[in-house]
Amino acid sequence: MFLKSAVAALALPRLESLAEPIRSLGPNAPRRLVCIGNSFGFHAANFFPAEAGKISKVPPALLPLKNHLKNCTLFSNLDHGAKGGHFAVHSFLSGVKQSQASSMPNGNLSLDQRAAEAVGNHTRFPSLVVGSENGLHGGCQMSWTRSGVRVPPIEGPRELFRKLFGREDQEAQRDQREKFDLKKSILDATLDEARDLSKGLSVRDRDKLDEYFTSVREVERQIQQREKWQSVAKPTPPMKEPTNRNLVEDIPLLYRLIALALETDSTRIASFEMAGAQFNTGILGLSNGYHAYSHHGQRQENIDALLTLETYQTECFAHFLDQLSSNKSPDGSSLLDQTTILFGSGMGNGNAHTNNDLPILMAGRGYQTGSHKIMPSAKNKRIPLSNLYLSILQDLGIEDEGFAHSNGTLTI
């Protein structure tokens, strides 16, 4: 069945009843969230401190972060209880595998996209999702909408730069406004007929139609968001347009552009996934692939190579924290003080393909403790990683009572 109007037809779900910008820092500054993940995890012995409490002996993979650890908190024994190796990695920000999404109230909605739903209307881009489109098991799949759709990533620094700073001429802007008007008229016409249709449906079908309306309203919201910013000039870029090289060399540039997006208040929510299969390990002096090194088989030469790859990632992350912490306001607070940053992976042990005991590091707002928190490891006392995510959302001012498999919040 279709809802028909003079301008369009909008397909319905199957219904049984119808058989057949200005940057602002300081104490009142907006809160921001950045989520960073990789697809192969970190070797536990290189990532986790040996003891709980203040970090006195820095693990090898975190040595580049030595000067920043006072602004960080590490967590052990947190995960989503997921199984599935590489496929469960995709639940890192959602806590729910895509195959299980239909049984959850919010599907496999990811942390960054839930935050974007709530605060994304304040900026030109509700969120920025950065990563590689191609890679092991389909490329980056860290960000998911409420309807279970993967958010495709912005692939390289050139594309991210153009999104943030690229400008359209007047003719292109006029064409875009006409497209907005057309899309709005299609939605208005079809929704009017849909509301009339709902009067004759069963309770179950009305619920299904309500879900459908929610999806349509999300399209409306996106159109309104884009239309609002169409006449607002993008910020002037402080750098020339970069070229794409390869993931390894591009990581520092991508971090720099994410920092600029936060600084110019182009967005307050960003995620960045590094798909390990895209790493050109030869640039780092290695002869094998990242995936092969993650299956190290306890061979020391492979573990050493893995440490080289992991150290490079934390070096780049440390420079990103440098950028945020050097961006000061007159009262002395920094962009880092206003930003909550999650750094980790949905893979706990790449060698064994397990998704428990995930490497989790928090930096910035609310997590400047310089300590290692070891969560309970006993099966009946384990704390879901989703508890941490719920705490993050609530700190952003989002009054949700749950997220994925959470059973409370996680305070430090």
Can you give a write-up of this model?
The longest helix is centred in the middle third of the chain and has 29 residues, at 170-198. The protein is globular. The strands form 2 sheets. Strands 4-10-5-9-8-3-7-6 form an 8-stranded mixed beta sheet, sandwiched between helices. It has a two-stranded antiparallel ribbon with strand order 1-2. The protein is built from 10 helices and 10 strands. It folds into 2 domains: 28-167 and 236-395, Alkaline Phosphatase, subunit A (3-Layer(aba) Sandwich); 168-232. It starts with a strand and ends in a 17-residue tail after the last helix. A hairpin with a 4-residue loop joins strand 1 and strand 2. The model is unreliable at 14-24 (pLDDT under 50). It is of the alpha/beta class and 412 residues long. It has helices spanning 44-47, 86-89, 111-119, 157-165, 170-198, 203-230, 247-263, 290-294, 300-326, 385-395; strands spanning 2-4, 9-11, 32-38, 53-54, 72-76, 128-130, 269-274, 339-345, 360-364, 371-374. The chain is 35% helix and 11% strand.
Q: Note poorly predicted spans.
A: 14-24
Q: Hey, roughly how much beta strand do the residues contain?
A: 5-15%
| CATH first level of the largest domain | Alpha Beta
Largest sheet: 8 strands, mixed
Shape: globular
CATH architectural arrangement of the largest domain = 3-Layer(aba) Sandwich
Can you tell me the CATH superfamily of the largest domain?
Alkaline Phosphatase, subunit A
Structural class: alpha/beta
End-to-end Cα distance:
53 Å
Q: Averaged pLDDT, please?
A: 85
Strand order of the largest sheet: 4-10-5-9-8-3-7-6
- SSE topology string: EEEHEEHHEHHHHEHHEEEH
| Integer count of domains | 2
